[in-house]
Write a structure and sequence with these properties.
alpha+beta, 4 helices, globular, 3-stranded antiparallel beta sheet, GIY-YIG endonuclease, 22% strand, 100 residues
């Protein structure tokens, strides 16, 4: 089986909220969120949607783990991730220390 790289992404919604997800193709996924019944239910009626963060993180389990960690961040921590003052490396390091 071929290795697929996944990205974690954050979308800023028209109502001011943030949505976090993972995808092997973020642009395709964003179009699904905007125009398809395959889009996330949370995003329905919350447009316009703006992609504010996206980073390739590795395989699907790693992406899912980081998605979970990002979803647990408070709003200011998510905004720090978006503006670059908090890195995914920091979240990964926190994950490693929690596991050990």
């Amino acid at each position: 089986m071929a290795y697929t790289e996944y990205s974690v992404y954050i979308v800023h919604c028209g109502d001011g909220s943030y949505y976090t997800g993972i995808s092997a193709d973020v642009e395709r996924r964003l179009k699904e969120h905007e125009n398809s019944p395959r889009g996330a239910k949370y995003l329905r009626g919350r447009g316009p949607l703006q992609l504010v963060f996206s980073e390739v993180v590795g395989d699907r389990p790693e992406a899912s783990s980081l998605e979970y960690r990002i979803k647990r961040l408070n709003r200011s921590e998510k905004e720090a991730l978006i503006d670059g003052s908090l890195s995914l490396q920091t979240l990964r390091a926190g994950q490693d220390s929690a596991a050990g």
